[in-house]
Amino acid sequence: MDLTRAAAEALDAADPVAAFRARFAGAGEDGLLYLDGNSLGRMPVATPAALTRVVEEEWARGLVRSWSSWVGAATRVGDLLAEGVLGAGPGEVLVGDSTTVDLYKLLVAAADARPGRDVLVCCADDFPTDRYVVAGVAQARGMTVREVPADVDEGLDHSVLAAALDERVAVVVLSAVAYRSGALADVAAVTRAVRDAGALVLWDLSHAAGAVPVDLAANGVDLAVGCTYKYLNGGPGAPAFLYVRRELQEQLRQPIWGWFGQRDQFAMGPVYDPVPGIERFAVGTPPVLALAAVEVGARLVAEAGVDRLAAKGRALGELVVALADDWLAPHGVALASPRDPARRGAHVTLASSAAWQLTQALVDRGVVPDFRTPDRVRLGPAPLYTRFVDVWDAMACIREVLASGVHEGYPTERSRVT
Ligand SMILES: Cc1ncc(COP(=O)(O)O)c(C=O)c1O
What is the value of pTM for the model shown? Predict the structure, then answer.
């Protein structure tokens, strides 16, 4: 690979989604080399106007009369994500609550759907909230957790998971893209293996949605959740999405019996009787303002096309890997993600014994990655608004910092969020 800056510029000139950069606030103006789109995506330029419209027209003037449009927002945005991002059908995706709460709802519903099975499987290296929810549900139900080990850089080995599947397993919770390394699971193969064992798999798509195609219908996925503030650019605290395959919906009943899942909601009936569709997984009043922001972000991803974004994400990752090998390896930095781009999501992770100090030095120089334990720097160049030259410049900055040793003057103790 040609590692000159001119070669990076040539990749930008040929980039079919380059124009989307101008539709994000700050991109190209704030001077930041923002490589944390896998933590919090940039704000779309259209978001403030969308929020203002909901606030000034629908809330200020429409008041309670606006509920006629608000009441369908969670499924309207869900349908948009289903079609434009997730490869699912209408009526299969709902937006609301946090990823953690959605995970809880679907995990309990799935465990209930597999009576007589007393084991929940999760990955020992999965994102904390996933492991905590699995542990909490297991404790409350008297079930056992089977944590399968995974290589911190390479992700979960399919054969290790397969060995953990038996007739006791009710539900398996896994991330499609590992939060630390970016390792990409084989969603179709794992889903098939878990289903063949008579269990259900619940996918966390937080680091996958908007970054790689997840093709839920084509891959035969039953259940999934994911957040919308990373590659979907829905904003801080944006509500999560949940997906339940249509044929499964009526077999499942989630544990939080709220009035927004109720049949004939405004009849205020005496007993809980959930609607047959995806709304049965709703709980309470939807976050109307936040949904307006998610809608803007989801539309941008759908317009750009997940396949094109994934292709660019892979190419950006390849540039990170090539530059890391050439420039950073001599400074003791190692790749901490799968080397094969087909086995990675859209972020690449580097290991360095000085990872935390390096992260602080980079942030102070306008390069924003994030730090992950134990000694990792995660680089998430979101394909919608990150240029190849941004990656090149950021990597050059990392090289400069390491060569100068300036990072060694930063505290070794972790003290701030990045
Ligand atoms: C894999 C994964 N799951 C879940 C979450 C967060 O869940 P919540 O929306 O409940 O904060 C994150 C946040 O970074 C994540 O990376």
Answer: 0.97
**Extents of the domains making up the chain:** 5-44+305-409, 71-303
User: Which residue type does 178 have?
Assistant: A
- The pLDDT of residue 406 is above 70: yes
- The catalytically annotated residue of 23, 117, 230, 312 is 230
Distance 404 CA to ligand 1 centre (A): 36
Contact by Cβ (8 Å): 103, 223: no
From 180, 205, 206, the mutation candidate for ligand 1 (largest count of ligand atoms within 8 A of CB) is 206
Cβ(228) – ligand 1 distance below 6 Å: no
Phi-psi category of residue 105: left, alpha or beta, with phi > 0 → left and psi -120 to 50 → alpha: alpha
CATH, domain range 5-44+305-409: 3.90.1150.10
Our answer to whether residue 260 is catalytic in this structure is: no
Does residue 337 contact residue 181 with C-beta atoms inside 8 Å?
A: yes
Gap between the Cα atoms of 4 and 87, Å rounded: 37
Residues linked to residue 146 through DSSP beta bridges, in sequence order: 121
Expressed in angstroms and rounded, the spacing between residue 126 Cα and the centre of ligand 1 is: 10
Total length of the chain:
418
Strand partners, 147: 122
334: its two tokens: 């190692």
List the catalytic residue out of 24, 104, 127, 260: 127
Concerning whether 105 is annotated as a catalytic residue, the answer is: no
3.40.640.10, 3.50.50.60, 3.40.50.300, 1.10.510.10: CATH of 71-303: 3.40.640.10
Q: Mind listing the pLDDT tens digit for each residue in 327-366?
A: 999 999 999 999 999 999 999 999 999 999 999 999 999 9
- pLDDT, tens digit, 9 for 90 and up, residues 294-315: 999 999 999 999 999 999 999 9
Per the CB < 8 A criterion, the answer to whether 344 and 317 are in contact is yes
